[in-house]
Write a structure and sequence with these properties.
Helices cover about 60% and strands about 0% of the residues. The protein has about 500 residues and is mostly helical. The chain folds into 4 domains: about 100 residues; about 100 residues, Zinc Finger, Delta Prime, domain 3 (Up-down Bundle); about 130 residues, no CATH class; about 130 residues, no CATH class.
Amino acid sequence: MFDLIRFPAEVEELVLFVEETDPKDIIQDTLYKLRHGVSPRDLLRAGALAVCRSTELPPEHHGGPVHPICGIHGVYNTSLRLTGEMAFMPIVQHVALCNNHVHSPQMGPYLMPEMRPLEGKGSDIGSYHLSDHLPSSGREDVLGDTEEAFLKSIQVQRPSATEQYYLRLQQDKSPGEVLDLILPAAISRNGIDDHYFIYPMFTTRALDVIGWEWAPVLMRVVVRYQARNPFSLSRGGDQVYPTAEALLDEYRLLETAIPMNTSDRETEAIGELGAKIGACNDYRDALEPMAQALAEGLSLEGAGEALSIGASTAYLRSSYGNPMDSHLHTGTNARRYLLNMEGVSLRNKILALLTGITGPECLTGAESSWDQGIDPEAVSALPDRSQGDLLDAIIKSIEDQPFSDWSETGLDRLIAPSEVKGAMLLAQQYADKRYDPEDLFRRIGELACRDDFTELHGIKHHQAIVDEFCDTREPFRWLHLVAAVKSAAVLEGGKEQKIYGQTRELLTV
């Protein structure tokens, strides 16, 4: 028999609150706790532990713990930018989503059991006899240590064994060293589903918020996801990862002294590479320019920044209107974060960069584009406004977006209405005038946390773009400001704001 995983008393109490509160009461009860001294971090931690302990991973990536965990970085940092009780709104959205998933029959009942750490010894691992699933050559020593057993259990899809090996590895290895063992599967399967890479990366960012002592819970689900996801695996793969590996060898990137840190001397090269990436009609064409730039001496940080510039350029060209396909930015944001993680190999950092915007949800967005980009003459023709008046005009343009019936068109076929381009023109004027970006990010952050349809994609997308703006140099950073406005306009068109509507009536703002 097994025992349900339990937490220390003060943590367990809040986790049970998320799990057991009736969904009709979760909004007002969460607000009560926030107003009476429970910290946002503690509530985010409770939601994370609850959704990991009490929801099962569905066959695809929607539902269960994937998106609630991936959203924690965005939720927490967006809440920090908002003022007064409006700062509670992202936290309420997260807790309500976790509570909804726990109570959903599509995701439960599920109970995370206690598991003992397991060492890989010999060819018989636990009761699974993994060697029966491996080629005859190398059976004698391939499972001789826990790392190898962990990798093989992912390969042959034995999720419970994978979890137990992870629990042993995390006792002695740093977070980066453990992540480095997960990354070969995560990066190679990025072409099957963007979330193979995004989920482990945003789980690490969630742990930065709630505390790394909770990695044995959150990362157990991550490695389980890598070891089983039949819906995605049944789609088959593509040639992006083999192409990236071939470029690694062709350009001798592991034999080249690639600098880590960027400098002002790289500005021109970064801009040129970013423009090349953003101009690709097929984002897979960006792999070789990235490899060539690294071979010619561009730093890893510089390559990540160019990827970011290219992603925003591509996003502004695309007329795709699915608010859940945010991975041009979230995938880039995760890769730039990865570059600075100690314990991750150079090989995995480079392969992550090369495969940067080639996941299926990114490639879908490349299939439709505006007839032309932002017209400078159209921006010049706009009336001159003060910062406050222009910001009000941007918000009004976003809020006035026509309703898009996602249920009729299907999200994967949704085209952004032409009115989105009007909001983008105003945003470009704001950027050209170099008005205060923090004021704009705060206002559209309030809009992003109204959404309760996309499983926190709106908040996650918004925060990723803000991160990229802050980490990108002049003059390229302003692309991200315009992208943030486009993201808010696309999101607003859905008008799925039930949680916001109920919460807004209870807020003193």
